[in-house]
Amino acid sequence: MLKNKKFLWGAGIIAIILVVVIAISTSAVSIETIAVKEGNIQRTVTDTGIVQSVTNYDLQTISGGRVADILVEVGQDVSEGQTIALLSNSDITIQKSNIKSQLAQARSAKLKIKATIDNLQSELSEAEKHLNRMEELYIANAISRVEYDEAVLAVDTINQSLTNSNEQLSAANEQVDVLNQSYRELGTNELDLTITSPIDGTIMSLPISKEQVLMPGAIVSTVAVDEQMEIKSHILSDELGGIELGQKVELTAPVLGDESLWGKVTKVYPRAEEKMSALGVAQRRVPVIISLEGTGNLKPGYETTVTIYTQSKEDVLKVPREVIMSLSDGEKQVRFVKDGRVVYNDVETGLSDNYNIEIKQGLNLGDEVITDTRIDLSPNTRVKIK
Q1: Which residue numbers in the chain have pLDDT < 70?
Q2: Which residue range is the domain that position 99 belongs to?
Q3: pLDDT at 130
Q4: How far is CA 107 from the centre of its chain?
Q5: Which of 75, 109, 146, 170 makes the best surface tag, with the fewest CB within 10 Å?
Q6: Which residues have CB under 8 Å from 223's CB, separation 6+?
Q7: String of b and e for 162-197 (b: at least 16 CB within 10 Å)?
């Protein structure tokens, strides 16, 4: 009988303990936590970029014209001075013919004036000799004053004609010079109808077709040195603050597969440009040039993803950014679990990246930080980690 009582007492105590344990466990709030870790934080700026040649030339027409012939094709290697396309311009041909005719007439007129001057100079020489004889006779009272004055007038008239002819010759020379200059310029324009490559390179574009009429300044072809390539990326002006020359850049692209290429920032443009986003939103973006350490199988015009490494810290305490709670006074807090209960603590943060943030003060390595800041938990609340 005594044994039965002892058994019942023991069973009752066990039952009470189980009830208490169950009550305690059921009253605790289930939460998820993440441990404070030590590691590296790498801040980056990621955007798209377009591959382009370091050295490239847009070949343009000077006078415009009709495309008479195209001697190369896109992707073809060309050498310096090689002809790419031939243009024809009937206006230049007509103008050149007209000026050539005018030039012939001007030269003929010039020769006639020179002949006239030669004749006048001969006449002047004879008239001056005659005047000298008449002056001697007039002094000797052998002729009248009227006869002497006639000899003087003859010399003056020839001199005036000679002056006029010299002026005409000067004007004719000037006209010939102007026409010669115009003829040379038209010749240069005619030479400009032959489009040649300024470098040893590759034809990157050829946006013309035979018989097409091109306006002055139209692009005939783009020639580039495709072995020397770089990336041009347009970075949002809000993200430009941390970007500096020399920073490391990682490049990925579908054409590269799992391979990454590396480069560095070599140029940041001094002003922003307005660009439209894919959603049609106007954005202020700054062009950034990235040099490449290797090109892989990239080609000009390919799109890449560029990741610029702007700041980094090694071996620091870090937690996910979403566990940080910002207070109205600007302070920051986290909630972590200690001895099964919620503890609130102010923290000092440092560098952050897209996922993690540095903890300078307020947490220790291994502390279990509550991940969901939306759960309403008072300090000292009993919690159970899932």
Answers
A1: 1-27
A2: 90-192
A3: 95
A4: 52
A5: 146
A6: 56, 57, 59, 78, 84, 197, 198, 199, 201, 202, 203, 204
A7: beebeebbeebeebbeebeebbeebeebbebbebbb
H/E run at residue 40: strand 37-53
Instruction: Let me know whether 151 and 110 are in one domain.
Output: yes
* Amino acid present at 122: S
Alpha helices in 28-144 (DSSP H): 90-139
pLDDT recorded at residue 191: 80
Task: Tell me if 267 is assigned to some domain.
Answer: yes
Return d(Cα 279, Cα 269) in angstroms, integer: 25
pTM: 0.61
Q: Distance of CA 193 to CAs 92, 93, 293, 327, Å?
A: 10, 11, 40, 71
* In-domain check, residue 15: no
Helix (H) or strand (E) holding 262: strand 261-268
Q: In terms of domains, do 253 and 135 share one? A: no
Say how far apart CA 133 and CA 129 lie, in whole Å.
6
> Minimal CA–CA distance to 63: which of 206, 183, 194?
194
How many separate domains does the chain show?
A: 4
Residue 9: the pLDDT is: 54
User: Which of 329, 325, 339 shows the shortest CA–CA distance to 367?
Assistant: 339
- 204 closest CA partner among 65, 48, 50: 50
- Closest Cα to residue 316, out of 43, 41, 33? 41
Residues 20-32 have pLDDT tens digits of 444 444 468 999 9
**Within 13 Å of residue 63, how many CA atoms lie on the same side as its CB?**
21
Q: Say whether both 96 and 187 belong to one domain.
A: yes
Q: CA separation (Å) from 365 to 75, 88, 245, 259, 331?
A: 58, 78, 35, 35, 21
Q: Which residue has the tokens 């343009």?
A: 60
Asked if residue 1 is part of any domain, the answer here is: no
